[in-house]
Amino acid sequence: MNFPKLGKMALAAAAVVACVGSATAAPISVGFNFIPFGGVLTANTGDITTSSSVSYSGGGYVINTIDATTTTNNVGVLLFGGVNLTDPMPLSVGSVFTKEFTTGLGSFTESLTVDAVTSGPTSRSISASGTITGGGFDPTPVFFSGTYTQNNGPTGQINAAFNNSTTPPPPNRTPEPGSLALVGAAIVGLAMVRRRRV
Questions:
Q1: How far apart are CA 169 and CA 191, in angstroms?
Q2: Residue of 100, 91, 29 lying closest to 60 (CA atoms)
Q3: Edge-to-edge order in the sheet of strand 40-43
Q4: pLDDT band at 28 (very low <50, low <70, confident <90, very high)
Q5: Are 187 and 173 in contact (CB under 8 A)?
Q6: 146 or 189: whose pLDDT is higher?
Q7: Which helix (H) or strand (E) holds 190?
Q8: Could you give the CA distance from residue 103 to residue 36 in angstroms, rounded to a whole number?
Q9: What string of DSSP letters covers 135-187?
Q10: What is the pLDDT of residue 152?
Q11: 138 alpha carbon, distance to own chain's centre
Q12: 6-15, 32-41, 113-122: which has the minimum mean pLDDT?
């Protein structure tokens, strides 16, 4: 038996295993909306517009729509599937929370940080971003938004709706100062031309 030849074959087999072992899985592509179902949401201040967290008791969160237009849903999310959120849910910039759901392909966990909070006369909304992992897929950026409304004022019933997607939200379309200055200069120029004609 020729041991050097056997050694070369073992080295080649190890190289193949190392290459296959280092291959990466696909990124996660998923998007869905979910809502609280059958429970009570409670703002820590009683007024959703000033609260820094919301607790949920007596129910669960369920998926009510799946986005098949901007994602491929390659993790197999199903309508009416359950979702778990950190409780109490933080409503302040910089707060961290997790979201979990399970499909036929495994359990998925999102680690998220609140990026922005906005309040309206009867509502409070958050947007967050982070990473989703699980199911043997590559860690993937994920984006979350949620809105809580309390139409009957402080201590009234709170409703909520949430969106979750690996598709980034559209960019903020705020014009840059240079663009505004250019538009302003054009308007002044048109006014001067019109004035000369009069």
A1: 39
A2: 100
A3: 40-43, 53-57, 89-90
A4: very high
A5: no
A6: 146
A7: helix 177-197
A8: 19
A9: TTEEEEEEEEEEEEE-TT-TTS--EEEEEEESSPPPPP-PPPHHHHHHHHHHH
A10: 86
A11: 16
A12: 6-15
